[in-house]
Design a protein that fits this description.
Length: 217
């Protein structure tokens, strides 16, 4: 049976991607006045990010469009919550701006290198010389842990602008602050990996340039 563009657009993982976008839009609309709806929609959208990959593999519905949709939704999600945090924590605007810029630029550079290298996905780029990135992309538990911890960091920081949440008697600390502290190292590690993405991708682009110039000479 011939596969059409409409068929690809209606693949199950892509439908999940559209739901993620809808949830993101809702969270943006409620971000400054209803923190519970916002964080529920935002975290559900991030949870579905893990589901669409499983659906794509299980149903044999992996696609270039789906990979692009997934990555762009991730970057848009991060940018949206960062902009909300800039409003809620104006003193730390520069920190959020730099973090957002690093997230976008590092992933774009990494994807671009993958594309010009002829790989179908940014996750398919050769990582043999980069054990940290190789572990990050090849170990699903590590990738899930890092992404989940990163999103919990932003979500708890967002919630604490409105409420501290229930108190935990055992540690004499609020629930949201406790999760925030636990996720801080994960956020730092993931930000460091994004910086590594940028450095490695930049070096790889330079290597491609050097190879092209060598062939011309």
């Amino acid at each position: 049976m011939a596969c059409t563009a409409a068929t690809v657009l209606l693949f199950v993982p892509n439908l999940i991607g559209y739901i993620r976008i809808l949830l993101l839009v809702i969270s943006c609309c409620t971000m400054l006045h209803n923190h519970y709806i916002t964080v529920c929609c935002y975290l559900l959208s991030q949870l579905l990010d893990a589901l669409d990959g499983h659906a794509a593999r299980a149903l044999g519905q992996s696609s270039k469009f789906g990979a692009l949709l997934d990555m762009l939704t991730d970057r848009a999600s991060t940018a949206c919550i960062m902009m909300g945090l800039c409003v809620l924590y104006p003193k730390y605007t520069v920190v959020f701006q730099m973090s957002m810029a690093l997230d976008i630029v590092s992933h774009w550079m990494h994807l671009h290198v993958s594309t010009i290298s002829g790989n179908a996905s940014h996750k398919a780029i050769s990582l043999e010389g980069n054990p940290i990135l190789k572990l990050y992309y090849t170990s699903k538990p590590v990738l899930f842990f890092m992404c989940a911890g990163n999103e919990l960091f932003y979500s708890m920081l967002y919630l604490m602008a409105f409420t501290q949440g229930p108190m935990l008697s055992g540690v004499n600390m609020s629930l949201f602050r406790f999760i925030f502290y636990l996720s801080c190292p994960v956020w730092f590690a993931k930000s460091s990996i994004s910086l590594l993405h940028l450095v490695v991708a930049s070096v790889n682009v330079a290597k491609i340039d050097a190879s092209d110039r060598s062939k011309e000479s």
